[in-house]
Amino acid sequence: MTIAHDNVVLHEATRVALEYLDGLDERPVAPSATADSMYAAFSQPLSERGEDPLNVIRDLAHKADPGLMAMPGPRVFAWVQGGTLPVSIAADWLTSAWDQNTAFYQTTPACAAMEEVAAKWALDLLKLPSTCSVGMVTGATVANLVGLAAARHAVLEKHGWDVEEDGLQGAPKVTVIAGEEGHLAIFSAVRYLGLGQNAVRKIEADEQGRMIPGALAATLAEIDGPTIVCAQAGQINTGAFDPFVEISALCREHGAWLHVDGAFGLWAQASANLCHLSDGVELADSWAVDAHKWLNVPYDSAMVIVRDPAAHRAATCSIASYLSDNGPERQDPMHFVPELSRRARGVSVYAALRTLGRNGVQELIERCCDLSQRMRDQLISMPGVELLNHVVLNQAVYRFHRLIDGQIVDDDEQTDAMTRAVIEAVQHDRTCYVAGVEWHGQYAMRIALSNWRTTARDIDRSSAAILGCYKALLERKASPVST
Ligand SMILES: *Cc1c(COP(=O)(O)O)cnc(C)c1O
To answer: pTM (2 decimals)?
Structure first.
C-alpha cells in the first residue's frame, strides 16, 4: 500500500463528510434503517486478506447513510444534542491526523498548550477562578466522576484519611447529598466511587426541579463528618438552576464540598443576560461542563474544573517515576484526567472558543434560549398543548391532551398516551426529532436547543410539524371509524 493510496482514502472520507454536512439541512432527521437491517448490511465474515481501504470507506459510507440520524443538523431536539461548528470538526480532523497522545507537555507541547489555553479561556467565560485546575475529559459523566473523586479526597483528608492510599474500607463515612431531580450522571459517579447510589441523601426539589435550601439545611443538620453536596446548573428537563448562593452558604457553614453538575447550564455564565440564573455558582468547589453539548464541538469532550488543584491532582494523578512531570508551573494534562493515553480533545475546544470569541459564545447561548421561547409560543398557541416548565434557558417539556368538543380531557393516562403518540408521529414524520421523558410522574415531550445551526425557520418548520402530527391524531381519535 502506497502513501498516495492512503491520501486517496482521506480525500474520499472528506468528500463523503462534506456531502453529509451539506445535506444536513434537508435530510430527513431520523434514520430510515432499522437496527437489524443495519446489522445485516455491515455483518460479514472477517476476511483473511483484508480489503482495499478506498472500497472500505466508500462501502461503509454508502451503507451507513440510511442508518444515520441528522444529529449535528438544526432540528434535533432530543436529549441535549449540541452540534458541531465547522471549525471544531476541522480541528477534530487535525487532532486525528496529528494523533498526539496528550499526556505530557514534553512529548506534545503544542497540544498540551492549546488545551491549557482553552481551559483558561473557559474559566474566564464561565466566571470561575483562574486558579482552578481543568481536566479535558470525554463527557459530563466523567467530569462529574472526577469532580466527585476530588471531593471524596478532600473531605476525607480533612478527617485525617487518605482515600487514595487506603481506600474506603475503614474510612470515616462519606455522606453524599444531591437534589432529587439531579442527573443520572451524578448517581453513576457515586456508584463508580464506591459511595453507593442508594446511600445518596436526596433533597426535595420544587416544581422546576430546584433543590430547596431549607430541606438541604435540615439534612445537613442531621449529618456529621465528611459531606459532599451535589447541585445542578441546568436541570435536564426544565433548565432550572439550583439556588447556589444559599446552597453554597450552607455548605460553607457545614464544611461540605459543593460540586455542580453544569453539563449544559453552566454556559449561562458566559451570557451577560443569563448569568443571573446561575448566580453564586462560582462559589462551588468543583464543576462539570460539557463542550460537546453547547460549545458545539464533536464528541467526546467535556471539562472537569476544580477550585483546589491539589485535591484534583490527588484524585487523578497516577504519577510514576518514568513519566515526565513539568512541576507546578506547566502541569502535564494527564494529571487531571483518569486516562493515560488519550487524544488531544481540547484542540477542538481551543478552535471553537477562538473562533467564537466572547461575543460569539454569548450569542450562541442566547440564540438557543430565544429560539426555545419562539417554539414555546408557537406550541402553546394550540389548545391542548401544555407547557410544564418555565422556559428560562434552552429546555422545555410539553404534554399533549386529548380534546373532546374542544375541551381538554383531564385524564393523566390519556394524556400520557396522546403525548407518546405525538412523539412517535413526529419521529416518523422526520422533519425534526424529539423524544419523551417522564417528568413528575407524567410522560412529556422534551425539547432542547443547543445547536448553532438551528434558525428561526427551523423552529417554525418544527413547530408546524409537531402541531400537524398532534392535529392529525386529534382528528383520528375524534372520528368514530378508527376508535
Ligand atoms: C448530558 C448531561 C450529563 C451527562 O453528560 P455526558 O456528556 O452525556 O456524559 C450530566 N448532567 C447533565 C445535566 C446533562 O445534561
So the answer is: 0.96
